[in-house]
Design brief:
about 40% helix; about 400 residues; alpha/beta
Length: about 400
């Protein structure tokens, strides 16, 4: 009897998983040995691996210094300069915190002008507005105080999970991105790029298991016929949380043939990123202004959309609660590691390190994603902190206890 039952179970299991595999969407991925040479179809020179030095991006930062206009940066008579860099983390709906901080920073009258803005996931959606400055504050506010879950995703039918790539469909998010990343914004970003400023967005190439950094200003000013669609697609990819949201595919060429790349949320690899390992500002200035050019001053400002300190709580014996808590804990540990890495890189290169996160005493209730009440609370928190002259942290959490 037991053998009969086992045979039935094995047969059903085989049929079930065979059905799932049979329903999976076919694709044409880049061969492993060609992944490093794959180029986007129709446009080249606008992206690089984020975990290694990039000759392409170094040449572009040299170009950026030649493009700099008087008054845009603090260039002194001796040729020395000071650059501010803004790095925006992921965090989903908690991105309302960074949006509010930028909004309040403008109202405080102390908002900086950034040479470089980088963004991951929710930070990728904020980054274009942050790059464009206070003129886009109202769009930023609307994006993070009037957006509900239905404006971001639709949960798929349970049966469709068997042949889908995700639990939800992000057609609403694509529509939301298109609303804010329009032709006017693209032209303004291209203009900022032409004046020597840079906007970088990170995605995760899931096939390669590596961070890809996209030069969004170069895309905006490329003259490529589908530049706007590509710009939007990169933002969507950077915010596409694996499993929850479907991957985004990019058509590429490698070895004379066409393939596709699978990209997901940049936060899969890093919560926030700084350019330090990809390019060298000091070397770039020497190339432009001569070997006697002073080393530029650089300060990096990191806005982390979450709490980095532990938040103890009693976890119920519930699969969803345990899963959410485990992922939250993993994400927090992830954030510690990446912040410490950026700090060490900044210290070695004499870059001033600054970061801010959601204060420990601010309560984050366990509510559904994109709850308008909570997003507005977070936005107001960011505004008030910026206006109050809140002090940036100068050390990562891993070192604060020791000093």
């Amino acid at each position: 009897m037991n053998r009969a039952v086992k045979a039935i179970k094995d047969t059903f299991s085989g049929m079930f998983f065979s059905g799932i595999n049979g329903c999976s969407v076919r694709r044409n991925p880049v061969p492993v040995d060609l992944m490093s040479e794959a180029e986007l179809k129709g446009i080249k020179g606008i992206r690089a691996w984020g975990d290694q030095y990039s000759r392409l991006f170094q040449e572009d930062i040299v170009k950026s210094m030649r493009q700099e206009r008087e008054g845009d940066f603090s260039v002194k008579p001796d040729g020395s300069a000071f650059y501010n860099v803004l790095a925006l983390s992921g965090g989903g709906a908690h991105g309302a915190f960074a949006a509010g901080f930028l909004y309040g920073w403008t109202q405080a009258g102390s908002r900086l002008k950034f040479k470089l803005v980088t963004g991951i996931s929710a930070g990728a959606l904020i980054a274009p507005c942050a790059f464009l400055g206070s003129d886009y504050d109202e769009e930023l506010k609307e994006m993070f105080t009037a957006t509900t879950a239905k404006n971001v995703f639709h949960i798929r039918n349970f049966i469709s999970w068997l042949w889908s790539e995700s639990f939800a469909d992000t057609a609403p998010l694509a529509k939301l991105i298109a609303k804010y990343a329009d032709e006017t914004a693209l032209e303004a970003i291209a203009e900022g790029h032409a004046r020597g400023r840079r906007l970088y967005i990170g995605t995760t190439n899931l096939d390669a298991q590596r961070l890809v950094v996209w030069n969004m200003g170069a895309i905006a000013g490329s003259g490529y016929p589908d530049a706007l669609q590509l710009f939007r697609k990169v933002l969507l990819a950077s915010a596409s949380i694996p499993i929850a949201f479907p991957p985004v595919y990019f058509d590429v060429e490698a070895g004379g043939r066409l393939y596709d790349e699978m990209h997901v949320d940049g936060g899969t690899i890093t919560e926030v990123f700084f350019d330090g390992c990809m390019l060298d500002f000091a070397v770039a200035r020497k190339e432009v202004f001569g070997q006697d050019a002073p080393k530029p001053g650089i300060a990096v400002y990191i806005i982390r959309n979450g709490k980095l300190t532990p938040s103890p709580q009693q976890v119920p014996r519930s699969l969803p609660k345990i899963t959410r808590r485990a992922l939250s804990t993993l994400n927090k540990a992830h954030g510690w590691d990446h912040l410490h890495h950026i700090y060490e890189m900044a210290r070695r290169n004499q870059v001033a390190f600054n970061y801010i996160d959601i204060p420990q005493d601010f309560e984050l209730p366990d509510k559904e994603a994109f709850d308008l009440e909570e997003m507005n609370r977070l936005f107001s928190l960011g505004v008030n902190l910026a206006k109050s002259g809140y002090q940036w942290h100068k050390l990562p959490p891993s070192l604060q206890e020791s000093f």
